[in-house]
């Protein structure tokens, strides 16, 4: 039996994207690293990197990303929606902002679809939070300090 490094509980995938700063700055190609862990099953982490710039890190709801594949999803600071480019393959536009920055990232629909399918194979939809985890969380909140 080999060492258990937990790699069966994590997914990583690098995809090409196209980022446009929300303030109307020029768009440019970027690399997007998607990370998912069964230990934190409700979210997907994204690291967006451009040549010569500091990488940006974002954490988005896995359900939001899944819903954004087929129609607009989200409100306020984070939205996801499918986009059609008559000159290229279908994509997904992620819009995110926080107090310091705002970003629009377009990635391939197929790449995101396959990645999310793999994440759902790892932790099926609807099974992310078990009652025992909720009970432990409540116990921790109610425990005397």
UniProtKB/TrEMBL annotation:
Transmembrane segments: none annotated. Keywords: Cell cycle, Cell division, Septation, Sporulation. Its main location: other. It is found in: Cell septum. The keyword Ligase does not apply. Coiled coil: none annotated. It holds the Pfam family SsgA. Belongs to the SsgA family. This is SsgA family sporulation/cell division regulator.
